[in-house]
Amino acid sequence: MTTREITEDSWRDLEDSLPAYGLYNAKKLEGNEKIFLAVNHNGFRNVLLKINCIDSAINDNHSRGLKVEGKNLVVNEIENAFIVISCSDKEGNKTFNLVASDILHKVVSGLKPADAVIQTLEKWRKFWGSSFRKILTEEQIKGLFGELWFLLVWLLPQNYKFVENWVGPSGSRNDFEWKNLAIEVKTTSSIRGHIHRINGIEQLDSPQDGELYCFSLRIRKEKTAQNTLPVLIKRIQNLLASNQQLLDLFDEKIAILGYSPAHEVEYSEYQYRVIDERLYVVNGEFPRLSVSSFQDGVPYGVERIDYDVNLEVCQECLIANNPYEFNSVLKNN
Q: Which domain of life is it from (predicted)?
């Protein structure tokens, strides 16, 4: 076993026959005498990091099903102090593999065990809860794909801090907001063109003191396409790698939306080719409904109005087909 990656195969021999109560099946990491993978009598997975004394251990139980504590254990007939990182919810095993891999890489690279655990938990805690959920629906995947594409291709090349303006994950009405500008991102795979479902009568209302734009992305699902959610996410993370604060903020936002790296394999099945991308200004010529569209207001008892818009009919609202044509607008925000 190497430190390249902890996978399901890494645990199979340990889980084939569970130990007696209070004991562990354990094996050391190849090439490192201080790191063990272990399984207890319940079949729960653990990473054991050997330390000099129990006083240098850390404790953390702030994540459901994930616990860190110091223990004196007998492993391979030798008693020693360990930091024990345990996963007591098997629904989280896939994410725990990623957590374990990250911890092991940090320790092998020379970081102290306690520091390796602290840094890893800070990174992965935001994804821990989402790993227990099912993957996003295909409509949710396409929606997130569009927002990430706009962030990666249209915004970040100009300023990495624009990740702060991605406010859709926090529940804001529009996906991106600046002081005098808001942008709603819509993604479609319609063969008829740029046709989108508008969710609610207020979604295309302009900001009180600014302009609203609509970014329309048309994609097609293809087995030979290279773009997936994991690909876009990794490209964004690579761009933000030099700014830990912005990188953490980005990871928090995709976690809020329900994305977990534990499901990368599943998400990689959704491969999209970008057919066309357009940016529209939402003005009086743009097809939309609002409260003012009804002479006497929205009829009493009508609680929600969803509708489709065909942007092929409003070419006069089209202001950009690529990010370079949009640069001047962002420079003022």
A: Bacteria
